[in-house]
Amino acid sequence: MNPFSLQGHKALVTGANTGLGQAIALGLARAGAEVVCAARRDCAQTLALIAEGGGTGSELRIDFADPMAARDLFAGADYSILVNNAGIIRRADSLDFTEADWDDVIDVNLKALFFTCQAFAREAMAQGRAGKIVNIASLLSFQGGIRVPSYTASKHGVAGLTKLMANEWAARGINVNAIAPGYIETSNTEALRNDPDRSRAILERIPAGRWGRPEDIAGTAVYLCSEAAAYVHGAVLNVDGGWLAR
Description:
- With 246 residues, the protein is of the alpha/beta class.
- Helices cover 39% and strands 16% of the residues.
- It has a single domain, classed as 3-Layer(aba) Sandwich (Rossmann fold), CATH 3.40.50.720.
- It is built from 7 helices and 7 strands; from the N terminus they run βαβαββαβαβαααβ.
- Helix 1 runs parallel beside helix 2, helix 1 crosses helix 7 (215-225) and helix 3 (99-126) packs parallel to helix 4.
């Protein structure tokens, strides 16, 4: 048996319409999982890529601006994998940061993530089924960053909740882990990549010498969702080109 195979598994990937979520959804499908692509925008491109690779996928429209949006999603649906990738970012100096920008980011990145995990775990335990949860953290789960106070707070929270849920659920058959991507070429980093000074400073620190690509994250997600990671609980794996080692 291939310990990295996801044959027979059904996965929900949030924020799967583009970027990291799209790459993760494609990676899970290539490993054999049936993938449900959840997002507030159209996932047609992701589904086309999954089909092109011979995989199985479907689409679910959901907006995690409502932190309880997934409350009833898992009942009777036979999911065994959850990847919490949906997230937003707002940029402003801390002196100017608004309550609305704080609440919007915390609701999507942290509150919705927790209650989605809760709903998934409740159903898995009720059915006596093992489950894998992978949360998308960030380098800013470990560092402060600049001009993204609510994003930094939310990603510190994701790392903490990942460990807490692992502590509570590991003995009940649910693996909870996280991936901390480095600087990846996605819409969230577009402003940084368009700033020549910031982009140069970032590249000078990355030992790998390049910005990451979404597909760089997909393999780690497949690993954490597979039996190869059966004894991995509460880990936050850095996939950052060596950034944190510098």
